[in-house]
Amino acid sequence: MINLDELPMRVAQGQMTSPNDDDLRFIKQTGCDDFQLNLVKSPETGDGFWALDYLKSLVAKADEHQMRLITIENVPFTFHDDILTNGPRREEQLKNMILTIGNMGKAGIPILGYHFMPTCVWRTSREEPGPRGALGTSFNFDRLDGIRDYSAMSMPDAFKTDRDIDDDEMWENYDWFMERILPVCEEAGVRLALHPDDPPTEHPLGGVARIFRNFENFKRAMD
Predict the structure, then answer these.
(1) Is the omega angle on the peptide bond into residue 76 within 30 degrees of 0, that is, cis?
(2) Residue 75, Cα to own-chain centre: how many angstroms?
(3) Which of 46, 96, 166, 185 has its CA 20 to 30 A from that of 75?
(4) What's phi and psi for 153, nearest 5 deg?
């Protein structure tokens, strides 16, 4: 296992969905020894969790390039959608998340980045003009056609609901998960990294509150 306490603050690169040789070679040439994978659309090895052999294969690829797989950001949405929303498969998904985190620890991957957005990332434009002609993404709530206009949702297959889920209910779901998963993380030696809601709007998106939208709510989560 990588001992994060023995490493200085440093830059990592990534967001790839697999550790291919060309990307890792490029990252190494820029002076980085650490990289991150974003596996939100990764193959679902096992049955709703990441199998140990799969995770070990990712670490082995890092070792080939004398690099560290320092973080995996995101699990496939189907790994935890009912955890986020108190759905019928919540207990089953919790067991699988426990398996996934345990396998990450055994494989030597020290950080799992996660979010708590049932309706995921939203954008109203993917061609927003930026400096010197560059294009970027943006979000403008006023461009939505009502609170359940899902056209801006980046993952069309993500959670949709006809009822409202407010801050209190989202906090209940979050606290339920943290109470059960943090002891597992401590035992496995895996740290969790919480992604802010994207976008961090005060408005519910798709009828679902965005609780990680400000400093105060992040502090509440960390406390």
Answers:
(1) no
(2) 6
(3) 166
(4) -75, 125
In sequence order, which residues have a C-beta less than 8 Å from that of residue 125 and are 6 or more positions away?
137, 138, 139, 140, 143
CA distance 60 to 6: 22
Q: 67: closest CA among 115, 17, 117, 10?
A: 10
The structure's pTM equals: 0.92
CATH topology of domain 4-120+162-222: TIM Barrel (3.20.20)
User: What are residue 135's phi and psi, to 5 degrees?
Assistant: -110, 140
Helix runs in 4-120, H state only: 21-29, 52-64, 81-85, 90-107
The Cβ of residue 158 has, within 10 Å, a number of other Cβ atoms equal to 19
Q: How far apart are CA 223 and CA 220, in angstroms?
A: 5
Six token digits for residue 27: 């990252």
Tens-level pLDDT at each residue, the chain (223 residues): 788 888 888 889 988 998 999 999 999 999 999 999 999 877 656 679 999 999 999 999 999 999 999 999 999 999 999 999 999 999 999 999 999 999 999 999 999 999 999 999 999 999 999 999 999 999 999 999 877 888 888 887 788 888 899 999 999 999 999 999 999 999 999 999 999 999 999 999 999 999 999 999 999 999 9
Which tokens belong to 5? Answer: 């306490």
Instruction: Mark residue 222 as left, alpha or beta (left: phi above 0; alpha: psi -120 to 50; beta: remaining).
Output: alpha
Provide the residue ranges of all domains of the chain, joining segments of one domain with +: 4-120+162-222
CA distance 73 to 111: 8
Instruction: Count the neighbouring beta carbons within 10 Å of the beta carbon of residue 14.
Output: 20
